[in-house]
Task: inverse folding
């Protein structure tokens, strides 16, 4: 079964450093997302991406965050200057607008754990 | 998106049927109800989605009363591997722009006991 893959599985970085988290969505999907989950807390929406532009973003997704689809397969999340509070699991997801009713199923990757020291 | 309320946690013995109810009093006409499952350190996984009445798949059943202000996820004969957090989401995830925003609540932590 097709799956969303994320790299790295775990990254440790120093505060203030830039981090890029990578995702390969399911190949025929057109909508891409990033979520994050701080340990013990709920899954939080960061951003959705469609047609090479941001569709919607949350208040969490401030100027230190950016997303990009640099080629036909990868979808990246960049955190410019990491803070301690950015430590979390970051999940990438994709969906296929042709699948099922008027809402689509989100397929999530296994996540990238970011630890900021 | 409509706000949802579900129990914070539930315990169940192996082999029992588990029913998790979600309240969504402000559900809108176009809203669908979707449930996701999340195991520790893994991404959420879609379980089931419905609009009204009953939906059943190989994993679970979803019961939605006529007023659609609540829904119940039913897991038949749970096993230890069903221990996870279950999220109820309500929304019209396709808007005129064709994209969707899916927001997770706090979920219900189900603990299956041997």
Result:
């Amino acid at each position: 079964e097709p799956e969303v893959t994320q790299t790295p599985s775990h990254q440790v970085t120093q505060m203030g450093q830039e981090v890029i988290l990578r995702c390969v969505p399911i190949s025929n999907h057109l909508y891409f997302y990033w979520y994050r989950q701080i340990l013990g807390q709920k899954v939080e929406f960061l951003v959705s991406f469609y047609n090479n532009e941001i569709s919607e973003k949350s208040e969490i997704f401030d100027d230190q965050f950016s997303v990009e689809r640099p080629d036909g397969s990868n979808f990246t999340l960049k955190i410019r200057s990491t803070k301690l509070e950015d430590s979390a699991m970051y999940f990438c997801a994709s969906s296929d607008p042709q699948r099922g009713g008027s809402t689509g199923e989100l397929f999530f990757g296994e996540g990238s754990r970011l630890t900021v020291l | 998106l409509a706000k949802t309320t579900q129990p914070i946690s539930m315990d169940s013995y192996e082999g029992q049927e588990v029913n998790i109810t979600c309240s969504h009093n402000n559900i809108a006409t176009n809203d669908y109800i979707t449930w996701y499952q999340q195991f520790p350190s893994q991404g959420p996984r879609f379980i089931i989605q419905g609009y009204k009445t009953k939906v059943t798949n190989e994993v679970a059943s979803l019961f939605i009363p006529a007023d659609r202000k609540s829904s119940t996820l039913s897991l038949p004969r749970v096993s230890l591997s069903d221990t996870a957090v279950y999220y109820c989401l309500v929304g019209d995830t396709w808007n005129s722009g064709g994209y969707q925003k899916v927001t997770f609540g706090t979920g219900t932590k189900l603990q299956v006991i041997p």
Chain A has one domain: 5-96+107-116.
